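The step that takes the researchers longest sounds almost clerical: writing a folded protein down as plain text. The outcome of that step, for a single protein, is printed below.
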Amino acid sequence: MPQQIALNVNGKSHVVEVEADSMLLYALRDNLELRGPKFGCGLSECGACTVLMNGNAVHSCIIPVSAVGNAKIVTLEGLGTAEGPHPLQKAFIAEQAAQCGYCINGMIMQAASLLKRNPRPSRNDIKQALNGNLCRCGTHMRIVRAVERAAAERVSE
């Protein structure tokens, strides 16, 4: 039986009507019509559904919406805007890191979590942080360079 559940997403309060065991990904995509998080595998193996929960990267395909509680959720749409993109979004564009683009949501959100914890990551730190996110197109080095670029730009701000 559907329940009304309050969520804080991208700085705004929302109430969604969902089954309690429904995954956060479905509430974000189906109820709030956000398209940043993607359905990839449904098993927490690809990272396409990555969002930030209280600043930490999580795979929204395995988080029951009923378990979110008062956590603050940030999706790709909440990271930056078309007029004022986040440094990571700018860097991914500059490095042409997307080919098909399916993994990019997860890569950017995982990188945002990394840069929050470690504003000056080494290349190895970046690779380790992105290890749970799959890119089938093979743009891994462009993605790593984009995160390095964003880190360098954020340090110089």
